[in-house]
Automatic annotation (TrEMBL):
InterPro entries, per the entry: L-PG_synthase/AglD
Protein known as: YbhN family protein
A Pfam family matched in the record: LPG_synthase_TM
Record membrane topology: Multi-pass membrane protein
Subcellular location: Cell membrane
Family annotation (PANTHER family): UPF0104 MEMBRANE PROTEIN MJ1595
Membrane-crossing residue ranges in chain numbering: 39-60, 72-91, 146-172, 178-200, 221-242, 307-329
Amino acid sequence: MTNVDAHGDNAAPGARDEAGAARQTNWLARPWVKRGLTLGYYVLAAIIVAALVQFGRSNWDTIARMAEKPAWIWLVAAGLYLLALICRGIWFDILAMAFGARLPLRDSVALTASGLLGNYLLPGNTALPLRSLYLQRVHGLSYKRFIPIALAAFVFSTGAYGVAVGLLALGVGPVSSHAYLVVVSLFGFGGVALVLLLLLPFPFGKLPILGRFIDKALEGWRLLIASRRLLGSWLGVELIRAGLDATLFWAMARMFDVPLSFGQAAIITLVKDCSLFFRLTPGGFGVAEGVQAFFAIAFGLDASRIVLVGLAGRVVEIICLTVVTALLMPALKRKIGNPAATR
């Protein structure tokens, strides 16, 4: 009888795919690699903070005028952000519903706020691991089942944003920048490709490299798109959330006398969200501001003022996240620490 080794030539194709994926990612777990990445992350964070301080000093007069705006303006901005935060929580909850898990809204908002706040402080994306831990501890939903569907949803959202950017660019009107036309075209056509790949029954399992691994990872996503009710609810919440984000950016720009149309604000917001998919910097600092500056120049606007509007939005975001986390996270920590007491 032949001795079959999961890592040998006689292994099943799925086992070879998973073993190959493990070998490709195992080096990331080495201590010196983790320490190096963490050190590099915080060095980058220090550079970004220094650049922001210098930018603030150069635009101090504008910042002072922004700070003099009435309190109701900031309250409206905070209200819009909190509504978008609730939508972000429900976005994840609908994904968990595909596996039969239902989350209280209070827990959902606490998880979302603390995860987003953690993105400003820790390397990588902290929101997804935190929510996965909660689902496994409280609802018994394995992270191996939830993380793949969440990642597939992120990819689909990125594609949908790309399609929306292409359509909005048609409505915004002609822009003379060649670079702008190239970027929006790439987003539009690339978005269509991503959406079709995740909606159509593409045979990922037949791919020669990691095909079966990808196919297995998409099992949860197929559960979502098989339910019209769940998929429709998820898409509706995503549309509302994107609309709230665009409205917040547009409203703050108008409050600070920046002549930005809603279509332009929506394009900037959607492309910024796409650029934050990998979160290469703390809180996406630098990446988001670069996107805002690029499109401001393409639209013939003052790039520094657009970036200041974005930074003002970050201030609103951090304050809201801190308050919500401080109010709701203590009870959630007790629930995660002792899930049996809540059942």
